[in-house]
């Protein structure tokens, strides 16, 4: 067994398989770190295998349906993950020879007690896929999005947008950074492209995030262009008391603190808030860190503004987190809708009269976005919608709705000819009535 595990390339494939298995079982994807694979090239390849398997999940299902008459055997350890990783190598990673993918796929199965019983099946299935590689590699991208979501999104955004969603899903997303202060020289060094406001996009990079120019000096933080808009639209002023509810991972807190506001950042996760604290330290920014359940936090109406990035389905993040397409269902979304309403009402109770409230979700679901605006109008009479205008987005009017809200979709055209998509988001702004 020791000799088998020492086969070149086997360890990283096993790490990829175990990692993929945990995601298939419902855990969120987190990149394989140096504690698991010391070599950066091995980590990059293993992570690419896992993320490609997640992005191509629907197509791999179609492949399995054809080559596995009885389906993937159950109670077989890492077998399904091993097969998915090997299929990725055979069909979509051109830099890996087919014979290597098959051999290491078989050896990966043999390295696991339960999966090892099916080594001959693995060999036969992978050779069948190799023979049909041209056909399987050209499967329709429409298979990539679960049918119930595709139906909802087609109704909301149109068939062309959903086709574009599928195209974006199989692409590696660019890296968006929010600059702490304008810095044309830093943008040039990074090889970045200005997108909107303080957001800079890196479409290519050859270094880890922590090794990029300006990271150690605290000149920027990672934040998708969509996620940078809610804090900007809150309009934080120096000295204002602002509450960032559900603050982790902390990008919005950093924006508010950078504007000079007195920020209280609250989240229920102590571990995530420790990372927020560490990031603020790196950026030389300050905020009060509170670990608590947002619904139980009741200091009274003491805040000039509240930013509520409510817990949601996160379906809008599928280009960066393709596992959300596997983990979400209608019942879970309905449960989140109910929670969002409670949190929105509670957030309003923490505002001073005349205070501002931003409600946002990284979701493409109308139940979590547009319909929540309608609910708030009816059920929260102390809140008055405050429409958002194009001038607040540097003249970019593409995402503005007739209601004065912002609806962002992954296929939307960005300013300055920037490509690469963006996260789906919904943003609404309110003002608390003074009387």
Automatic annotation (TrEMBL):
GO biological process: methylation
InterPro entries: MeTrfase_RsmB-F_NOP2_cat, MeTrfase_RsmB-F_NOP2_dom, NusB-like_sf, NusB_RsmB_TIM44, RCMT, RsmB/NOL1/NOP2-like_CS, SAM-dependent_MTases_sf
Gene3D superfamilies in the cross-refs: NusB-like, Vaccinia Virus protein VP39
Source domain of life: Bacteria
Active site residues of this protein: 362
GO molecular function, one term: methyltransferase activity
Keyword terms: Methyltransferase, RNA-binding, S-adenosyl-L-methionine, Transferase
Binding locations of S-adenosyl-L-methionine: 246-252, 267, 293, 309
Domain SAM-dependent MTase RsmB/NOP-type: from-to ranges: 154-433
PANTHER family, sorted: NOL1_NOP2_SUN FAMILY PROTEIN _ ANTITERMINATION NUSB DOMAIN-CONTAINING PROTEIN, NOP2 YEAST -RELATED NOL1/NOP2/FMU SUN DOMAIN-CONTAINING
Entry similarity comment: Belongs to the class I-like SAM-binding methyltransferase superfamily. RsmB/NOP family.
Protein name, per record: Methyltransferase domain-containing protein
């Amino acid at each position: 067994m020791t000799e088998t595990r020492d086969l070149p390339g086997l360890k990283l494939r096993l790490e990829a398989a175990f990692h993929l298995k945990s995601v298939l079982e419902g855990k969120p994807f987190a990149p394989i770190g140096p504690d698991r694979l010391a070599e950066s090239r091995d980590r990059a390849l293993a992570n690419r295998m896992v993320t490609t398997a997640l992005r191509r999940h629907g197509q791999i299902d179609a492949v399995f349906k054809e080559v596995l008459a009885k389906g993937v055997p159950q109670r077989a350890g890492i077998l399904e993950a091993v097969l998915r990783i090997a299929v990725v190598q055979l069909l979509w990673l051109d830099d890996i020879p087919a014979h290597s993918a098959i051999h290491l796929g078989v050896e990966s199965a043999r390295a696991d007690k339960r999966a090892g019983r099916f080594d001959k099946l693995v060999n036969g299935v992978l050779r069948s896929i190799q023979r049909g590689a041209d056909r399987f590699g050209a499967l329709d991208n429409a298979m990539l999005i679960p049918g119930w979501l595709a139906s909802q999104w087609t109704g909301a955004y149109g068939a062309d947008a959903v086709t574009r969603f599928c195209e974006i899903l199989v692409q590696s997303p660019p890296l968006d950074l929010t600059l702490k202060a304008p810095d044309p020289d830093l943008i040039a060094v990074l090889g970045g492209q200005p997108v909107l406001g303080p957001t800079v996009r890196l479409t290519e990079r050859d270094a880890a995030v922590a090794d990029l120019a300006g990271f150690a000096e605290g000149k920027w933080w990672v934040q998708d262009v969509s996620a940078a808009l809610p804090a900007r639209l809150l309009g934080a002023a120096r000295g204002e008391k602002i509450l960032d509810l559900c603050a982790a991972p902390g990008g919005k807190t950093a924006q508010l603190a950078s504007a000079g506001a007195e920020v209280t950042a609250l989240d229920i996760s102590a571990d995530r808030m420790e990372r927020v604290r560490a990031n603020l330290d790196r950026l030389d920014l300050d905020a009060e860190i509170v670990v608590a359940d947002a619904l139980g936090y009741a200091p009274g109406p003491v805040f000039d503004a509240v930013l509520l990035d409510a817990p949601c389905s996160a379906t809008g993040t599928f280009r960066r987190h393709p596992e959300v397409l596997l983990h979400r269902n209608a019942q879970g979304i309905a449960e989140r809708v109910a929670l969002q309403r409670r949190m929105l009402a509670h957030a309003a109770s923490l505002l001073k009269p005349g205070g501002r409230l931003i409600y946002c979700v990284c979701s493409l679901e109308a139940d979590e976005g547009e319909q929540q605006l309608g609910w708030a109008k009816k059920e929260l009479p102390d809140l008055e919608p405050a429409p958002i205008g194009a001038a607040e987005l540097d003249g970019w009017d593409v995402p503005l709705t007739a209601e004065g809200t912002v609806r962002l979709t992954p296929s939307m055209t960005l300013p300055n000819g920037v490509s690469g998509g963006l996260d789906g988001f919904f943003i609404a702004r309110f003002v608390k009535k003074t009387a």
